[in-house]
């Protein structure tokens, strides 16, 4: 059993290294980073981490080129998701039809009006969150020009973050590229979950603060009722 696991691990590692050195590395990187802007199951981060590990290990393409192509792919995917939302609405994508997807859309709808910039930038680091925000931005008529600019900043930040994770993982466990990829992907997922929790917590606090600020001036109402009771003619 142990021998089989070791052999399988070696085969996967060999396939990984072959893909990193392949002429298809950058096309695959662009396609996956574009695709996960509107379809979360596509492993865009995984491919970025994989190529960053390869660059750090001395193989494949340079990490600067990985960063450039990943950012471009992410930006193009965001624009496609925005266009889908504008044309078909938020129910166009299966990923947004389930309970989690509908909650994400509801949150994005409430938040885009109040703090569009921070929402677009923060959601890029949350797989389902970025899809919900991208599609909802198009569906609710969020400014296309503003979305394009914010998405460009978010895409560069996300690509840099993913490349950094892969580079650090390779520096830590550089003797095994496959293990470095696994460590980098798991670390990226955990950081994404953390970002999601922080964003939702801040949004909940702001909503509670906004609700608390909307109060009925009860003393003034009671004072008016008392005045009317004292002056029946005024009430008529």
Automatic annotation (TrEMBL):
The chain crosses the membrane at residues 12-35, 47-76, 147-172, 178-199. GO terms for cellular component: plasma membrane. Its main location: membrane. It holds the Pfam family VTT_dom. It is a multi-pass membrane protein. InterPro entries: DedA_domain, VTT_dom. Keywords: Cell membrane, Membrane, Transmembrane, Transmembrane helix. It is found in: Cell membrane. Residues 46-167 form the VTT domain. It comes from the Bacteria. The keyword Membrane applies. The keyword Cytoplasm does not apply. Belongs to the DedA family. This is DedA family protein.
């Amino acid at each position: 059993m142990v021998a089989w696991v070791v052999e399988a691990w070696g085969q996967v590692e060999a396939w990984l290294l072959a893909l990193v050195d392949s002429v298809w590395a950058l096309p695959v990187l662009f396609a996956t980073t574009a695709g996960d802007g509107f379809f979360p199951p596509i492993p865009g981060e995984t491919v970025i981490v994989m190529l960053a590990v390869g660059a750090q290990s001395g193989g494949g393409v340079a990490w600067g080129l990985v960063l450039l192509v990943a950012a471009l792919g992410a930006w193009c995917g965001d624009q496609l998701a925005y266009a889908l939302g504008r044309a078909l609405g938020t129910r166009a994508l299966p990923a947004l039809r389930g309970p989690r997807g509908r909650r994400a859309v509801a949150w994005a709808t409430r938040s885009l009006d109040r703090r569009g910039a921070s929402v677009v930038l923060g959601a890029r680091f949350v797989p389902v969150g970025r899809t919900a925000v991208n599609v909802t931005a198009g569906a609710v008529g969020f400014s296309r020009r503003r979305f394009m600019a914010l998405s460009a900043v978010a895409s560069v930040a996300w690509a840099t973050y993913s490349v950094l994770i892969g580079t650090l993982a390779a520096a830590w466990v550089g003797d095994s590229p496959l293990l470095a990829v696994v460590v980098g992907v798991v670390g990226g997922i955990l950081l994404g979950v953390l970002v999601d929790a922080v964003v939702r917590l801040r949004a909940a606090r702001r909503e509670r603060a906004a609700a608390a600020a909307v109060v009925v001036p009860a003393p003034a109402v009671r004072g008016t009722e008392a005045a009317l009771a004292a002056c029946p003619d005024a009430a008529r």
